[in-house]
Design a protein that fits this description.
The protein is mainly alpha-helical and about 500 residues long. About 55% of the residues lie in helices and about 5% in strands.
Length: about 500
C-alpha cells in the first residue's frame, strides 16, 4: 500500500469522522495514543494520533522525516527507533539487514546501536546534541534503554565510550524518561539494569553517581533471572524498604534473592498504606514452606491481617497447602469464615452446588481472585468452581486489566478459551491503553515465562472471536513468530484488518 503525507492527512480526517459517529474503534485509538478522548476531536489531535500510530512522536516530526528521507525510509527509521526503545532486537536486526545504513544521520539511533564514530562526529559538530532531546528522549536515555548489547556484546567498549562522551557533554546519569502513569519517571539506571539487562552500563552509571534508590531499579533487578544487578544495587547502597523488591523476588520463588534483600534491611512486614504483608504474598504467589520459614524467622507476624484476612486463610483460598501447613505449624490461627471455607473448597476441588457468594461483600483479595490466580498456569476447573460460586470473571483490576487480558498477556490459551465462554468485554481498553490483542502482543515480548507459553495461540483465539487486527501490528509486533502469524492472518482474512494510520 502506497503511503504519503496526503494519505495520512486523509486518515486523520477519517478518524475525526469516525469519532464524531461514536465509532468504538476510534475511541480506542484515541485512548491509546492520547490517553484521553477529546470532544470535539481537533484536526491537530487527529494528526498526532496518526503520527503515533505510524511510529513517530508527533505529526511535525513525521512530516520533517518524510520530507527529508522519503516516506518508506522515514517509516523504516521510525520502526527501528521503536524497536530499539522497546528491546525488539529481532525487529531491529531485520530492518538493518534490509537497510544497512538506516541509522545514518539519526543520532538517537546511532547512540542506541553503539556507533561510536558516528556519535563522536555528531557531537564534535554540535556539542549541544549531547543533551538535546531526540525523538522525545535525551541521548543518554536512548543509550540506557537499548538492548543492543545482547546482539553485539563486542561493542561494550564503544557503548561505554559513548556514555562517557554524553556525560562529558552534560548528560545526567540520573536522567529519566516519562513513565506510563501521570508523574511517573523511569530513570536511566532502571533502563540499563531492569529494562536492558545491561550490567556493564549499570555498573558504569552507579560508579558515576546514579542513584540506586530511584524507586525502580531494585524492584526490576529481581526479574532478570540472575542476581548480578540486585547485588550491584545493594552494594551501592540501595535500600529495599518500601520498594516491593522483596515481594517481586518472591513472585519468582527466588530464595537467594529474598535472603539478600532481608540481609540488606528489607522488612518482612512492610508498613504503610497499600503494603502487602510478605506472608500474604507468599500465600497468593504459591511460595513454598522454606520461603515462609525464612519470612517468619525474619520477623513476619503470622497473626497479621490484610484486608481483614489472615495469611493462613489466604493460603487456603489460593490452594497453597504448603504455606497453610507451614503457618499452622508455627501456631497461626486456622479459623475460616463461611466465605473462606467455600473459596477454599473451590481451590481443593470440592464443588459446592447451590452455594453462592455475594462478590460485593468480599474483600478485594477475594473478589479479584479470578484475576489473581492468572499470574500462574492455573487449573481451569478451579476458575469454573469460583464462577459457580458467583465470583466475577471480567472484573478489571486496579490497572484496568481484565482476566481475559491477563490470560492473553501470560500466554495461556486454555485459560483464555474458558474465559471467552463467559462472554467478557472484548472491546475493553485497560489503563495502559491496551486492547485484548495488543496486550497479548505485549506479553509475547515481555511476559517472564513467554518462552514456555503460547501467545500465538492466544492471538488466534482473540482473532477468531472477532477482535480487530490493527494494521500497525503487522509490522511492529516485536516477536518474530507473532509477527509472522499476524501477517498470515491478515493475508487469509483481509477484512479483519483495521486501518489505523494507513488509509
Amino acid at each position: 500500500m502506497s503511503l504519503s503525507l496526503d494519505s495520512l492527512r486523509r486518515a486523520a480526517r477519517a478518524l475525526q469522522s469516525a469519532h464524531a459517529a461514536d465509532d468504538p474503534q476510534a475511541r480506542r485509538r484515541l485512548l491509546s495514543a492520547l490517553g484521553t478522548v477529546p470532544n470535539p476531536l481537533k484536526h491537530a489531535d487527529a494528526l498526532h494520533v496518526i503520527a503515533r500510530e505510524t511510529g513517530f512522536p508527533s505529526w511535525p516530526r513525521l512530516k520533517r522525516s518524510v520530507e527529508r528521507e522519503g516516506m518508506d525510509r522515514a517509516a523504516a527509521q521510525a520502526r527501528l527507533g521503536t524497536a530499539l526503545r522497546h528491546g525488539q532486537t529481532q525487529m531491529a536486526e531485520e530492518l538493518l539487514s534490509e537497510w544497512p545504513d538506516l541509522a545514518r544521520g539519526r543520532l538517537e539511533l546511532e547512540i542506541a546501536l553503539y556507533d561510536l564514530g558516528a556519535v563522536e562526529a555528531a557531537l564534535a559538530a554540535d556539542p549541544g546534541a549531547a543533551t538535546r532531546p531526540l525523538d522525545g528522549w535525551r541521548p543518554i536515555c536512548h543509550l540506557a534503554f537499548s538492548r543492543w548489547i545482547h546482539v553485539h556484546p563486542d561493542r561494550a567498549e564503544a557503548m561505554l565510550a559513548i556514555a562517557a562522551r554524553l556525560v562529558a557533554g552534560g548528560a545526567d546519569v540520573n536522567d529519566a524518561i516519562p513513565g506510563p502513569g501521570a508523574g511517573e519517571r523511569l530513570p536511566v539506571l532502571y533502563g540499563a539494569i531492569g529494562h536492558a539487562d545491561n550490567m556493564a552500563l549499570g555498573r558504569w552509571l552507579l560508579a558515576r553517581g546514579a542513584d540506586p534508590n530511584d524507586g525502580e531499579s531494585l524492584y526490576h533487578a529481581t526479574e532478570l533471572g540472575h542476581r548480578q544487578g540486585l547485588r550491584m544495587l545493594l552494594e551501592a547502597g540501595a535500600d529495599p524498604r518500601g520498594t516491593n523488591a522483596l515481594l517481586r523476588a518472591m513472585d519468582f520463588g527466588d530464595h537467594a534473592a529474598v535472603a539478600l534483600l532481608l540481609a540488606h534491611g528489607a522488612r518482612a512486614d512492610e508498613d504503610g498504606a497499600g503494603a502487602v504483608p510478605a506472608l500474604h504474598h507468599a500465600a497468593r504467589r504459591m511460595c513454598d514452606r522454606a520461603m515462609v520459614e525464612a519470612l517468619l524467622d525474619a520477623g513476619a507476624d503470622p497473626a497479621r491481617r490484610w484486608q481483614g484476612v489472615t495469611a493462613y486463610a489466604l493460603a487456603r483460598v489460593h490452594g497453597n497447602g504448603a504455606v497453610a501447613r507451614a503457618l499452622a505449624d508455627r501456631g497461626a490461627d486456622r479459623s475460616l469464615t463461611e466465605a473462606e471455607a467455600l473459596l477454599a473448597s473451590a481451590a481443593e476441588g470440592r464443588p459446592q452446588p447451590g452455594r453462592w457468594l455475594d462478590p460485593a461483600r468480599l474483600p478485594d483479595c477475594y473478589r479479584n481472585l479470578v484475576r489473581e490466580l492468572l499470574v500462574r498456569d492455573v487449573d481451569v476447573g478451579h476458575l469454573q468452581r469460583l464462577a459457580a460460586l458467583g465470583l466475577e470473571t471480567d472484573r478489571p483490576d486496579a490497572q484496568g486489566v481484565t482476566p481475559v487480558q491477563i490470560a492473553g498477556w501470560e500466554g495461556l490459551p486454555h485459560v483464555m478459551a474458558w474465559l471467552l465462554t463467559t462472554r467478557p468485554d472484548l472491546s475493553h481498553v485497560n489503563g495502559y491503553g491496551g486492547t485484548l490483542l495488543t496486550t497479548i502482543i505485549h506479553g509475547s515480548e515481555n511476559a517472564p515465562d513467554r518462552a514456555a507459553r503460547d501467545h500465538v495461540g492466544c492471538a488466534r483465539l482473540a482473532l477468531e472471536h472477532g477482535v480487530a487486527l490493527p494494521r500497525a501490528a503487522l509490522s511492529r509486533a516485536g516477536a518474530r513468530e507473532m509477527r509472522a502469524f499476524l501477517n498470515g492472518w491478515a493475508t487469509r482474512h483481509p477484512g479483519a484488518v483495521v486501518d489505523d494510520a494507513i488509509r
